[in-house]
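#struct-help
A.M.: can someone run this one for me? Single chain, 67 residues.
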Amino acid sequence: MLYDSSKLFAYSYKIMFSTETIERLLKVIPHNELYSSPIKGLFLRHSDQPFCYEGIIQEPSICIVLS
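D.P.: on it. Structure tokens below:
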């Protein structure tokens, strides 16, 4: 499941991420790399270039991948 930045901000209250938390995450997550969080199955990606995920090209965005 992928969330682009607009959806992430729209649903941030549901997943308990504040704008401040997201800004702090962006400083920690390496650009254009998948970050495996300490939470099992939660992967984060801060992308500034398109990338392919499960055969779908994703545009630059903040993505949270729940598997």
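A.M.: thanks! The radius of gyration is 11 Å.
D.P.: also worth noting: The longest helix spans residues 19-28.
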